[in-house]
Amino acid sequence: MSSEQKSSSHGKLIAVVVAAAVVIVFALLSAFVWPGWAMNKSASEEQKQQQTTSAKPEPTTPSIKAKELPQDATPLLKAMPDAVLNFARTESAPSANWTSASPLEEYTLTYSTGNAAKDVTLVVAQWSSADGAKTQYGTLTGALKGTDVASGDVKVSGNATGKYVVKASGGKNKTATAVWQNDTVVFQATGPKDSIQRFYSKFPL
After folding, report:
1. Of 30-34, 63-67, 188-192, 196-200, which range is least confident?
2. Rounded Cα gap, residues 192 and 133, in angstroms
3. Contacting residues for 100 by C-beta, under 8 A, at least 6 apart
4. What residues contact residue 46 under an 8 Å CB cut-off, 6+ apart?
5. Which residues contact 66 (CB under 8 A, 6 or more apart)?
6. What is d(CA 70, CA 107) in angstroms, rounded to the nearest whole number?
7. CA–CA separation, 200 vs 197, rounded Å?
């Protein structure tokens, strides 16, 4: 090969190397300096991962065992579920919060996930007629303070058998109370807002 041919080949090789180098540098600049899509993509993926982690669904079954009801439990007390989602019944006892309204029977129950900070306190009572329960429902809801969260009709098999109201109160509305009437029975659930919103909507009665 003549020196002239060698010089020509060498020049072409240098041109190819320089062109390749320019392409690589441009690609790096495009990715990390100018549009920044590489870093944006990483940030976006990290954000999505954080959102996925924070949106982890709550358990739907309890991790603790429900406390047994007394052997002489009445039909009303026996109707109280052992668990609602991951809230298990941990306490149940006769109570007298609504004695002035003359219920036939009344109980206070605690439902827990195992974390006392998330406990729900449930008061339940029954009257001899739906009118008595409706009067008590009106008394309780009339005394509720705070921000409206939800309200509507309680329906059984498509028929309205009562109403419900949920209100949040306290600092940043961290606590809530749900009151609902189902025919002759009235319920009042109190606890952290997140717990109440999950609990009342899945309560079977």
Report:
1. 30-34
2. 25
3. none
4. none
5. 82, 83, 88, 89, 90
6. 13
7. 6
- Tokens 């009344």: give the residue: 106
Buried b (16+ CB within 10 A) or exposed e, 148-180: ebeeeebeeeeeebbbbbbbbeeeeeebbbbbb
Judged against a pLDDT cut of 60, whether residue 30 lies above it is answered with no
- Whole-model pTM: value is 0.73
C-alpha–C-alpha distance, residues 107 and 155, integer Å: 23
For the four alpha carbons of 91, 191, 81 and 154, in that order, the dihedral sign comes to positive
Cβ pair 185, 205 in contact under 8 A: yes
What are the residue ranges of helices labelled H in the chain? Answer: 3-32, 37-54, 75-78, 130-143, 193-202
Considering only CA atoms, which of 188, 132, 135, 183 is closest in space to residue 157? 183
Res 43 pLDDT > 70:
no
Task: Give the pLDDT score at 102.
Answer: 97
pLDDT, tens only, 61-93: 999 999 999 999 999 999 999 999 999 999 999
